[in-house]
């Protein structure tokens, strides 16, 4: 019996297969998903991991056994699954572990229209049912007729929808290197970029869930080294890197230098606001000061929120926001059912760069205005008391404010930092930003000295 406390996270299901969960567990999840969502039909897709096809079939059996008709769209990116959920008006389930190593797999679930299923929006109920049925020997028999399982390819419709949102027909010819990391970008990128005025240089487009070249996690600098090298070698205009399920996109400029996701968020926000002046744009509290500044300069209304896709999507739905951006390279679009899609963000970058004559480094300089530390993780067993110690150290200082929307955010005259506990690991995550690098270093070192005061082990990313 699977220990669901180890695999059911705040936003999804994720764990090692078959050690932590297997096809029998996936079948129970399929049945529970139908019970909680009330779905009479649903859509499922999966990434290229060796365990994905079997898990999808098991999930489908569980759902069909409860009377739901299952549409399998096969190999796809996570944002293609969200597209299918929105286009078909069906709840959906995507089998992927994103950037995690090969032995992991997971399920990202949504209601019709790609509305998220997280801990507070159905996932806790699904977990409870799976636990109960595991104890009793299986899901109860349904009085509904057995559901059907059919296959449908939606890649062409997905690409057509993306092209309807960003016009690249008149851009100058660009040389682009794309690193798919042996993930789902290897399937979606050639299809979406076909026919555009691009010279495409591909890295690791072969679908291989064992990740033979590097982890499909571009957030870790070591995993974009090959992309940076190839950009310089071929004299490319830019490089793009996708994570394993291709819902996140990272950008490097013509020099091979990484472009901060906050700068991409600000750039895309300005383009979206040009279409709908005065609209609301969501950003999480760890994005750069540049993001709300550009939103206001572009005539929009910035709204700050907690980190995490469920919070972003909820705020987008509540406010009618046109766009949302996170520091982790998740980009959300009203025209994409408020869901995140790295591919659509990439098309915006290509359109912006190809619509003018300068290099990408010059273009993004307008959106990248401050120095930052990047995310620094410290392994800390007593997260609460370490955070309290940092709060006490900065309390009462002149011109310093604090809030606890998500972890602890402390803001000074020309700097800010956020210290936030991980939801799944004994870590404290620190992000610092300031108007100059020297101030970043000073604030960073002061906070870390308190966090690590008792000799905790550390890991910096």
UniProtKB/TrEMBL annotation:
Output one GO BP term. carbohydrate metabolic process
Q: Which GO terms describe its molecular function?
A: intramolecular phosphotransferase activity; metal ion binding
Indicate the segments forming the Alpha-D-phosphohexomutase alpha/beta/alpha domain, all copies: 6-132, 157-256, 262-370
Q: Which Pfam families match?
A: PGM_PMM_I, PGM_PMM_II, PGM_PMM_III, PGM_PMM_IV
All copies of domain Alpha-D-phosphohexomutase C-terminal, residue ranges: 375-448
Which keywords fit this entry according to its UniProt record?
Answer: Isomerase, Magnesium, Metal-binding, Phosphoprotein
Q: Which cofactor does it need?
A: Mg(2+)
Tell me which domain of life the UniProt entry assigns to the organism this sequence originates from.
Bacteria
Family according to the record: Belongs to the phosphohexose mutase family.
Would you tell me the protein name for this molecule? Answer: Phosphomannomutase
Gene source species: Streptomyces qinglanensis
Q: Kindly list the organism's lineage.
A: Bacteria, Bacillati, Actinomycetota, Actinomycetes, Kitasatosporales
